[in-house]
Amino acid sequence: MDSKKIIFSGMQPTGLPHLGNYLGALKNWVSLQESEECNTIYCVVDMHSITVRQNPAELRKRCRDLLALYIALGLDPEKTLIYYQSQVPAHAELSWILNCYTYMGELNRMTQFKEKSLKHADNINAGLFSYPVLMAADILLYGAHLVPIGDDQKQHLELCRDIAIRFNSIYGDVFVIPDAYYGKTGTRVMGLQEPSKKMSKSEMASEGNLVSLLDKPEVVLSKFKKAVTDSGSEIKASPEKPGITNLLSIYCAVTGKSIEQAEVDFSGSGYGSFKTQVGEAVVEELRPIQKKFKDLSEDKAYIDDVIRKNGERANEAARKMIVKVKRKVGFFA
Ligand code: TRP
Prior knowledge:
Helix content: 40-55%
CATH architecture of the largest domain: 3-Layer(aba) Sandwich
Structural class: mainly alpha
Number of strands: 5
CATH superfamily of the largest domain: HUPs
Distance between the termini: 25 Å
Strand order of the largest sheet: 1-2-3
CATH class of the largest domain: Alpha Beta
Largest sheet: 3 strands, parallel
Shape: globular
Number of domains: 2
Order of helices and strands: EHEHHEHHHHEHEHHHHH
Bound molecules: tryptophan
Radius of gyration: 21 Å
């Protein structure tokens, strides 16, 4: 029997991941892949993304870019099951079934639904409402034990557990009850211009606030040079120095140094040269990723092949559970 832990996570193909997604989540995804004790499954959740209106050509491109970026970051499509959610009909099938085991009241409480309804007041569709049920289906379909997520998805994972426990209490031991995984090295990256808030895609207030993984070296450097710092001149992590603290933790996340070590290294150096050095360290981290991404983007046949083959593998992996669930509820399967 395979006693490895199954790890499942997904990311929406809405715009390319930024440095915050990378240091906070994706770097962890890669280290989980390297662990002997884990089977990793990472999904491009394109079905979730149509809860908000999308341009089809753009959506298609973003899905490809995200998949290529997964690979460029070090995810190996032979080791890790990376695939498109819409390639696997069992997600939609299980999602429908689980909808019938989820209460309106539970979905009404979801803070992300409330936020998104405010933002997209002209398109509060049923998919947006039942979004967390599809997410639960993603996770439960593969019997995932651990789900790497950011704290914004905590409530959705709690709901997933509640649905699974409810279903199991009626039909027996069908689903694995998953746990959230926050990772050891996940760094909370804050905006370069607004270090009191998390670096985020929607925070488009100022362009220099966010570093895209595909920003050119000179752009990365200039964003770091313009990063907001704090009063004083000491390079030390502290709650009174959110700007410096953020830069230090970014530096440590990419170099693997400890904060204490970095503080020693930078003692006596000025803010200007510190910011340049952090920018340079990030440029070095991104250089091989960008090179690989560029090569992959030019290899259409390879990406097509990964999408097709891994779609098949995912269908295969999902089959056992969907058949089991259908039988349990009384369908012919
Ligand atoms: N809702 C998640 C997000 O927006 C993405 C997601 C979809 C997901 N299905 C998932 C994450 C399953 C983890 C597991 O970030």
